[in-house]
Structure formats: C-alpha cells, structure tokens
C-alpha cells in the first residue's frame, strides 16, 4: 500500500463523514495552477479551492506578506484593538467597491459567517425579519445560512428546524425554464420572459409582505446552483423592486467576487449597487477571511458589541488580503481573466457540441473565469464521469455543480495562456473519454 493510500485511509477513519470530498488525493503542496500529492504527482488545478486561490497556489508576494506578518503579530482581536493590516485593507478595498456608498466594513472568517452578518445587519437596520432568497441559491452551511440555501437538499436535510422567515423566489435559469423550453427561439437568455420578476412580486403579495421583509439576497451569478448568469436586465429590475418595497438588496459575492467574473465584483456587469455586499473566498488567497460592506448609516445603527468574533478580521489573513489586492493591480489579473475567458469560451463552444452523442446538447455559460458547462440528454452522472476522467487519466482537477449534469471551471485568475491551452486539450480528452463510456 502506498503512502498516499495509507494517509487517505487514515483520513477516512478519523475525519467527519459529513465532509463531502470529490477525490481521495492527499495534497502536499501547490504552486500557481498546480497541486502536488504526497507522492509527487502533479495535477492541473481548475478548482482553485472552489474559487479561493484566485492568485494561484502560494503566490510568492502573498507568501512573503504572510511570513512577515506572522513574525510580527498573529492575533489582534477586533473587539480589543485596531490593527494596521485591517485598516490598510479597508483603504485598499474602498476604491474597488461597486459604489462609493459602500464605505463601511465588517470582517469575519467564512462566507457563511459573512452572510449571517449581512442578515443581522438587514434585520437590525430595518426592524423587519423576513429574508427572500432565490431557487438554486447557496449561502452556506450554518443553521442560518443552510436555511437560505436551496441549491441541493443535502445541505439542510435532517438538520431542522431551520431559521424561520425565509421565502424562496425563482431564479432566471433560462436553460431550465419551462417558457424557454416551449419557445426557445422567442424566450432565452437574451430575451427573458421575466416570469421570475413576476413571481418575486407575487412573493411580496402572497408570502412575505414588504412590511415584514428585511432583504432580498442574491448571488449575482449562482455558484452551487450551476454557474447561472441572469439575463441582462434582471438585477436592475430586482433593484427597482427592492427600492419600491423599501427592502434591502444583499449581493452574495462570496464566489463571484474578487475578479472571478472579469470585474472586481459581478454586480458591476449590470451597474447595480446592493445595499450590502458579502465577500469571502478569493479575498485573501486561501487565508480565512470574509466580510460585508454597506453604507455607514446602516452600519451605524448596530450597537457596539453586537458584532464581532474571536478571529474576525485576523491580522495575518488581512495581510494576505492586502498582498492579494497588490497582485491584482501589479499583474493586471482582471485583464488576464478576460483574455483567458475568451480563449476558453471560444474553444469550449466550438468543440464540445461536436463531441456529444445524438440527442445530447450543452449549455456553456458564465462570466470571466466562472464557467459552467451543463449537459442535457445524457445519463445521470455524466458530468462526474468527465471529472473522473480528467483526474484519473489527464491529471486535471475539475468539479461538478448543481442538481443537473454540470461541470464548473474555476482556474486561478493568473492562469497563463499556455496553461489555458493545455487545460482545453485535457478537458476535450476527458469529455471524449466520458462519451466513450456511454
């Protein structure tokens, strides 16, 4: 038995079974777009820790900042002190916000915690309780956030009763929309039927009165729901509805933020400003940090002591986040994201449809380097077969997502032109291998 197998078996015995895992690999190190197992095998990583290592694994500038900070101060508890890395981070983040009105920050550790912080702020500031979420959403796995997650039942099944006051509206998922399927040439992503807007208005009339509704929360591009991009005018109409009903709009940019879609935050694609923006994942290149940002008049409604946490805004994580933003600027990561995105979309859309069996089709969608590939007319498990082919035969890591047969591509934002070309060929070979198994 190899060392890798022994370590994996040890993990199977002693790590909580509730943690889902897509591989049994034991990773020892990472560099750029690659990870290496304890036995030295090298994999091209198009998962980025589920959209976390946006600057690649162990970017030297981030590593240096972390090393220097760890040798100076490792914990400056936010309810006791200010610390310089957090203050510098706010100074760097403010100009990158979608609007100057988003000027006041609170930092925590994980995406789930940041979503809960946004809910706390919305409820406290409005003195209202209900939250409206969208079908297919993913907001986390704490009791509060699993109550708001609707992408898969596995995240909340058996854990009830969950948080009350959550209501669900349809997300404009054109590829799975009954109206689109009945009239695909008339209604599609470029010409939405806008039924989800009408359904949201019904939620306000039938289930959650505006006088009881604190906020609507949305992922500008759905993550676990399938990397689904809304039609071009949906977020603007959502903003109008929230304003009309005196309801706050929360943008959950945990996965779509920090350059993932080719802009710093996905809401910028539609020129929409949320009342509260949630961020995490790519913010600190792999160090645990999350946060919310909102208007000062909203944040100032909360009494001192009502927010905080032992590790919230950890000083080392803040140092990593500062270095991450410096890498974004110095290496022009947004420009690289958009260039590599064009190459991937061009190859995927021109080649994959030709590889599929008769009766099968594919919807290739996304923004920037947040790319979903949804297959229709294929057997259940087809997307997983592709991911397995990529891992076992082509030394590449891919993830599936949603309840449908969907792959997601999440490379680091500094992936090179050469690595992208290599990845395209590995993906094509993996699709071919999965098709041959049908």
From TrEMBL:
Superkingdom, according to UniProt?
Eukaryota
GO MF terms listed in the record are: identical protein binding; pyridoxal phosphate binding; transaminase activity
Q: Which UniProt keywords apply?
A: Aminotransferase, Pyridoxal phosphate, Transferase
Its needed co-factors are: pyridoxal 5'-phosphate
Instruction: Fetch the CDD domains from UniProt.
Output: OAT_like (cd00610)
Q: Tell me the Pfam families matching this sequence.
A: Aminotran_3 (PF00202)
Protein family according to the UniProt entry: Belongs to the class-III pyridoxal-phosphate-dependent aminotransferase family.
Q: This chain belongs to which protein, by name? A: 4-aminobutyrate aminotransferase
- What species was this sequence derived from? Umbelopsis ramanniana AG
């Amino acid at each position: 038995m190899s060392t890798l197998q022994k370590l994996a078996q040890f993990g199977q015995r002693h790590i909580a079974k509730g943690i889902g895992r897509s591989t049994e690999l034991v990773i020892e190190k990472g560099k750029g777009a690659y990870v290496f197992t304890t036995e030295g095998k090298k994999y091209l990583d198009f998962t980025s820790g589920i959209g976390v290592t946006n600057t690649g694994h162990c970017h030297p500038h981030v590593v240096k900042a972390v090393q220097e900070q760890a040798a100076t101060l490792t914990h400056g508890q936010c309810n006791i002190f200010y610390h310089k890395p957090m203050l510098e981070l706010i100074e760097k983040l403010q100009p990158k916000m979608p609007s100057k009105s988003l000027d006041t920050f609170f930092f925590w550790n994980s995406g789930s915690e940041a979503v809960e912080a946004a809910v706390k702020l919305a409820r406290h500031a409005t003195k209202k309780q209900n939250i409206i979420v969208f079908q297919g959403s993913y907001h986390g796995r704490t009791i509060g956030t699993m109550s708001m997650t609707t992408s898969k039942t596995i995240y909340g099944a058996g854990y009830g009763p969950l948080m009350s006051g959550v209501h669900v509206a349809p997300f404009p998922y054109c590829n799975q929309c009954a109206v689109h399927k009945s009239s695909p040439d008339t209604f599609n992503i470029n010409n939405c039927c806008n039924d989800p807007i009408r359904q949201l208005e019904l939620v306000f009339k039938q289930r959650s009165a505006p006088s009881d509704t604190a906020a609507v929360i949305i992922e500008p591009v759905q993550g676990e729901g399938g990397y689904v991009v809304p039609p071009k005018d949906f977020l603007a109409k959502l903003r109008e509805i929230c304003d009309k009903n005196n309801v706050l709009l929360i943008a959950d940019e945990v996965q779509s933020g920090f350059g993932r879609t080719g802009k710093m935050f996905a809401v910028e694609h539609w020129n929409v400003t949320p009342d509260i923006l949630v961020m995490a994942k790519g913010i600190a290149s792999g160090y645990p940090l999350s946060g919310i940002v909102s208007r000062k008049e909203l944040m100032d409604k909360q009494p001192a002591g009502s927010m905080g946490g032992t590790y919230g805004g950890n000083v080392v994580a803040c140092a990593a986040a500062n270095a991450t933003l410096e890498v974004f600027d110095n290496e022009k990561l947004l420009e690289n994201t958009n260039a590599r995105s064009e190459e991937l979309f061009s190859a995927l859309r021109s080649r994959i449809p030709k590889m599929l069996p008769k009766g099968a089709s594919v919807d290739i969608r996304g923004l920037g380097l947040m790319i979903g590939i949804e297959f229709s007319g294929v057997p259940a498990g087809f997307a997983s077969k592709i991911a397995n082919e990529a891992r076992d035969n082509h030394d590449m890591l891919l993830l599936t997502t949603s309840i449908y047969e969907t792959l997601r591509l999440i490379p680091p934002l500094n992936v090179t032109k050469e690595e992208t070309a290599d990845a395209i060929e590995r993906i094509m070979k993996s699709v071919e291998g999965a098709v041959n198994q049908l």
